[in-house]
Amino acid sequence: MAITRKPKATTADNFIENGGSAAISINLEQPISSAGIVSQRGRPRKEKESETGVKLRLPTSLLKQIDDSVESRKPVLSRHQWILEAIYAKLDRE
């Protein structure tokens, strides 16, 4: 009896990185060619920009002002998105 390793469990991230359900259907289907044009499925992959976590200490009163501004926006943004918008706006002005 041959001994084999247990297959690795596929996580959602691995599944998506490998093309997801589009990759499965592409492997199962023959590409349809008409007049030399082969159709492709799915969107092109975007490279993710690396991110770094930053701890930010803010006075409570400033945080309250930010939260009030966030809640007054329609549609409501997250505090994180609001702060990123403010940073990008400041960088655009310089």
Structure write-up:
By secondary structure, the protein is mainly alpha-helical. It has a domain at 57-94. Helix content is 46%, strand content 4%. It contains four helices and two strands. The chain has helices at 12-17, 20-28, 60-72, 79-93; strands at residues 33-34, 37-38. It has a two-stranded antiparallel sheet. The longest helix is centred in the last third of the chain and has 15 residues, at 79-93. The termini are far apart.
What is the typical, i.e. mean, pLDDT? Answer: 77
What is the CA-atom radius of gyration, in angstroms?
A: 24 Å
Q: How far is it from the N-terminal to the C-terminal residue, by CA? A: 70 Å
Classify the helix fraction into a percent range.
40-55%
Low-confidence stretches: 32-39
Assembly level: single chain
Strand percentage lies at under 5%
Derived structural class: mainly alpha
Helical element count? 4
Identify the strand order in the major beta sheet: 1-2
Number of DSSP E strands:
2
Secondary-structure element sequence? HHEEHH
Q: How would a crystallographer describe the biggest sheet?
A: 2 strands, antiparallel
- General shape: elongated
Topology:
Layout: H1 12-17, H2 20-28, E1 33-34, E2 37-38, H3 60-72, H4 79-93
Which short descriptors sum up this protein?
94 residues; mainly alpha; two-stranded antiparallel ribbon; elongated
